[in-house]
Amino acid sequence: MKTKDYYNKIAKGYDELYGKEQLRKWNVAKKLIRFSKKDNVLDVGCGTGIITQKIARYVNFVVGLDISEEMIKRARLADNITYIVGDARHLPFEDKKFDKVVSFTVIQDIRNWDKVLKEMKRVSKGIVLLTVLKRNKKLSDIKRKLSKYFKIKKFVEEEKDYIFLLSK
Fold first, then answer.
1. Assigned fold of 3-167
2. Over the chain (168 residues), what is each successive 10-residue block's mean pLDDT?
3. Neighbours of 151 (CB within 10 A)
4. Measuring CA to CA, how many Å separate 150 from each of 23, 24, 64, 123?
5. Of 97, 120, 123, 95, which Cα lies nearest the Cα of 107?
């Protein structure tokens, strides 16, 4: 089953299934990354916007992007949030559009990491935070790819994920 189809299928119960887990990751991540009221942020793979909404409290503006139409339909709006359906391999934004880019538990679901990482680097002004599931069998490959495109500033092991704070 394609990733998009899988997330469209589980969208209705996503918050119930993964909400607490996502908030746990957010609580660790917000200690690593400093947001300011001037920041414009991109949340790649935002799902139902659980973390996007948290980010919105700290920043000027946040865009939540997800490949699943059903996930985006369930995302809760706020004045400084825009949600769009899109593909992380082809981000529809100009170069250096965002002060920060975040992506929670997405990279391992995408086949072409190179494209995604290049795109995140392209649209970021310098800071990227992403998480990777610990149970992922390709973690060492992902780490190698991260090092190809970014400097790993900080690395934290969370209960189910590894959290990377990256810079250009």
1. Rossmann fold (3.40.50)
2. 77 76 89 96 96 96 96 90 96 98 88 90 97 82 89 91 94
3. 11
4. 25, 25, 22, 13
5. 120
